[in-house]
Specification:
Apoptosis, Tumor Necrosis Factor Receptor Associated Protein 2, Chain A; Potassium Channel Kv1.1, Chain A; 2 domains; 6-stranded mixed β-sheet; 5-stranded antiparallel β-sheet; 12 helices
Amino acid sequence: MNLEQNNDVSFTGSLEAVKDELIWIIRSLNPDKIRSVRGIVSQTVFVGCKGLSGTLHLQPNSISEFLSLTVYLNPTNKSLPSKFWAYIKCQLLHDKQVLASSTAVGTFSRKQNYYVFQNFVRPSDLDSRDRVVVCCFINVLDRRVNQIKSEVSSPGLDSRENNTGASRAKNEFKKEKVLLPESISTFCTRPVCRKNSSKHYSYLEILGVESSDVTLVSRGEEFPAHRNILASDSVVFSAMFIRSAEENAEINNRIIINDVNPDVLHQVLRFIYTRKLSQYELVPDVLIAADKYELGKLKTLCERILFDKMSPNNVCGILLLADRYNFQSLKNWALFFISAFADHVIRTPGFQVLTNSSSTDLMAEVYCEIDSFLHK
């Protein structure tokens, strides 16, 4: 699809390329154009020194209530291979507030030149906004990534990002510092409970304990909560409350949670109430719980944190996690990362753990990915 030659498409706002970042400033938002089938499109600009031209397209998603964001990347010279990978991190900002954020790794070629973030933002989030900014950081990944020093924790997240247009333009968004253990090899079975942690209901600091109408119990620790808040975020919690009420109406205010330890449950509740996490070393465990209880936003946040902080030292643990719990997007990125940084990864203790503990099929995938990467 050639957007510039299609007269039905509405081009809106100004697009600027700053190094490897596209900054799309959309002024005087027109709700009718945004909600139209075609949506709105940016002009095409040259992207940094990567030999690419980039275009952004915001339009309604035909299968959901969201707007999708499509990132078009077209090679403009022969410096890039016919097929390449790109790490893309997009955020939508308004007055220093992040309205939407998505991260992905996509495969691009001259025939397949776009990636779609399906559920990027709700149209209602853009109502009454006189100006919004879409920031897309793009990092092309190819065989040269092996030359990057192992100190770089993840492609697209090195020091260059701090000098991009988004941070210079009023410091529109801040990157959260996240610390992860160097090797992730244990999961929800690990005993990390704190003494008397049930007394610290930080997630209830606004609503208060007194108004709670349900108590979640994990390994003897009690967590007061509110049914309507939990049910609105998770269909699993909603079904749990209904089943509990049907089974025993007298004691349905206590729900036993056997599959999540207290520290992880505390983080899950903290996110449901405040949209924040406080113990980032528990992110792998929280991701498992978010998937089990169908907490989509929390799962997306945990995956983004693991994407962003992936390094040669922890990637094998992340791959084991993704393979065991079928987090396919995270697994694909971990496989690619291992192939890109193979020289460093195979020297880490995590790779030895991966070799000893993983299935034959998973190791076959790892070696196949490395071989495919080296022979592109």
